[in-house]
Structure formats: C-alpha cells, structure tokens
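ok so heres the complex, two chains, lmk if somethin looks off
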Amino acid sequence: MASFSTNEFRSGLKVMIDGDPCAIIENEFVKPGKGQAFNRVKIRNLKTGRVLDKTFKSGESLDAADVINIDMQYLYSDGEFWHFMVPDSFEQHAADANAVADSYLWLKAQDSCEVTLYNGNPIAITPPNFVELEVSDTDPGLKGDTAQGGTKPATLETGAVVKVPLFLEIGEVVRVDTRSGEYMSRVKK
Amino acid sequence: MGWRPTATIESLRHRARIYRRIRAFFEAREFLEVDTPLLSGTTNTDAQIASMRAHNQGQELYLQTSPEFAMKRLLAAGSGSIYQICHAFREAEKGRRHQPEFTLLEWYRIGYDYHALMDQMENLIDLLSERTNSFQRRSYRNILIEHTDVDINSIQLPALRTRTRELVPGTDTSTLDFDQCLDLLISMVVSPGLQGYVFVYDYPVSQAALARVSAINPKVAERFELFYNDLELANGFSELIDAKQQRRRFEMDNSRRQSKGLPQYPVDEQLLAALESGMPECAGVALGLDRLLMVLQGLDCIDQTLSFPH
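and the predicted structre for the whole thing:
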C-alpha cells in the first residue's frame, strides 16, 4: 500500500487515519523558526462524514486509503440495502443504511449519483446537487398567491419534506438543492 | 504554468523602498553592510532546521540557513556593528507563511544586550511601517501561563502532554517531548491570541539556540522573538560568545540529530576559532523581510510578496 508524507498532503488526498478512510480538506504547515515543524490538517472521515482537526509532526507518513468515487445509477431499495449499478459494466453494489445515511431522501430510481467505494465496498453516497422529484402530498394550492412568498411543507415521492410555495399542487415536479434541502423551482412537465 | 511574477509590481516597488529605508537606517547608525557567501562547507547543526545541499567539483556544500556564522566571524575580526540583507534556505519549509528560500535582514550591534536590541528594532519597525506602533514585551513564561495555564517552571512532561492534547485536539502527544509540546502550544494557542507587535523574551534554556544564558535566571536564555499578531517575524539574542559553551551546544544539537535519525554535521570549527580569538559582546537579530512585507501590505500568504516563489 502506498503512503504519503506530510509534505505530500493536499486537499482531496485520501488517507487512513485511526483505521478509517479520510479525505484531507486543508493542510497547514506550522513551524516556529527554531522549533518543531507540524502539519495541522483538517480531514473528513469518509465513513461518518465528520470533520476533524489532526496534528502530525512534519515528516510523518500515512497510508493511502483505497477509496474511489464512481458515478452509478440508483436502482432500488429492498428495505435493507440500496442497490446501485455502474452504467458501463452493469456491475452492481449494495449500500447499507450507514453508507446511504440521509441521502436516501434524494434517491430516485434511474438517477445517477456518486458512490464512494472503500476497499470495493460502498461507504458513502452523494446524490446529485439538484434532483427533480414529484410532490406526493401537500395542502391544497392557493391560486393567485404566487407573489406573497409564503411556504408550506410538501412531501416528495422519496419521503423528503421540503418547504414549497403555496401554489404548488400534488403531482407537480419540483427541483431541489440536495445540499441544503431547499426548493429551487417548479419543473414544467 | 504562468511566467508572470506572483507579487504585484506595486509590491515589488514597496519592497525596494523598504530596502532603501533599511540601508538608510543602518547607515545613519554607522553599521557596515556586509555580504557573506550563500554557500558554505559546513552548516547549521540545529535539529529543527534542514539544510539544502549543493555541489562544486566534488566538494559538498550547503546553502546557508542563515548568515549567522559568517557574520560572527566578521564580528570577531573587528568589523564593528554589521547588517546584511540576504536569502536563506531551509529544506521542506513550505506553507502559507513559509518558503524554502526566503529573505532575511540580519544585524549585530556591538555592546547591546537583547533588550537594547528590541528598542532599536522598535525604531526600525516604526520607520519601515511609516507610523508609530505600540510594542508589548512579555516573557515566554508569563505569556504561556496567560494563554495555556502552563507554568514551565513547575509542569512535568506527562501533565504538559495532557494539557497540550486538551488545547490542541487531534494531537497524539505521547510521542512529543517537552519542547515539542511547547512549540505546538506557542504555534496553535499562544500566537493566535497575540495582538499587534509583541516581543516574547526569555526563552527556556532548552531553546537557547545561540543565545547566552541569563546571568540572573539560569533557566532562561536571553533570546527573543517578535510577533505581529500570530505571525513570527524575528528571532534575536544576546549572543553567546563563549567558544566552549558554543561547542557543547553544537554537540548537543548533533546528539539530538542522532536520536531523531537525522544526518549529523561537522561543527563549524572556523566559527569556534573566531569565538576563541574573542568576539565582542553584542546582540543580533534576524528579521524575515518577506513576512514583514506580508504585515505591511496586509497579505495572507508569503508567496504574494515574492516575485517568483517556489
């Protein structure tokens, strides 16, 4: 397994820290002129998504993490696993609830999303930044109230609940930013 | 890869103006400007500083990590007070505030001790920044107590490691020695709490470098650093002029190097011979000019002060 020394640390590098695959977000070289050199590193644990600060003595090395991101098509969920397919090879991967976490709220069959594989197994799912989903339940629409800017909750076909403008009706399709969970626009069919 | 300079032309003009003012400052005080070689057959034994190598016709040479040894030989030879603007080189130092090649202003004032030199430095900084600044002076021990509750006179290594881990989360302190813990606390906790120009002085003797040990308190060396906010700008001493002590420090450096698995270097016998022949009492300081320009120009990254950073 390859390893990386602190002077090779850069944003995006995937390394093993305390037994978990992590991605380096920021790396700062810290050294008093006549003192010990350290690298202060901000990392994201790719299993838990948590962001942590770590300190390393400059010159220390970390093992590379066997982590890759692959665009896959979401197929279906059997209740226990979520199934994804690599479009070119038809190779399938099953992700458990830990890997999918809250991303299931944005997964619609046939949509493409990014699957993070660690040692060949899915550990995280990143939905597209924007998804288009049908409104499955909401209070009746108020015609002519488009300028007021009021909102109401709407349940989407995946189970996600987002705030939408008052005029939207059941059966309409909305565009949502999956990073913030915010309604962006109505999609004309 | 672009060919254009990283610093703006305006920044380069400012640098040139700063150099003119520095020369005028020292000219007015009858310092001699000197120019010592960048290449040397011996190098700094400090275990925290890595030297870059060069070669000439089979001879192994080093790029200087500072002009200190050569300038001290001039002092011993009767140069009187001297200054130099030059480049220094330190392997693998690269970051927002570090460049492996950087610019130093180093000067030595005959007859001064470190506090007198701090006074002089205040005058220089006021001149270069074109304003009257306020400067604080805080002892290393007090500033560490203030920001970390660590008293270096009483704390033991296990407690220091625990405290360091609390204050700098995500650090495996079990492999850090006493001074490494202190270095981390200074970098991550103390210096981020500093405001404006602050001299930190009276460093623990374990970090004496080439400073003389205080006659009043043998636990500290007459060493200081100048910070602006959290940025370290300068390091100065009442210079150690005792050849025997200097040799012992070189040997200690090399045993530290050995324990860290670093290359050991022959001690600079020419410097020791110069001290032996008699170097006048003096104080000296090295000021990082690129970092001073960061402060004066309000820049966040050292690269922005340099024409062509590495």
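quick notes: The mean pLDDT of chain B is 97. thats all i got rn
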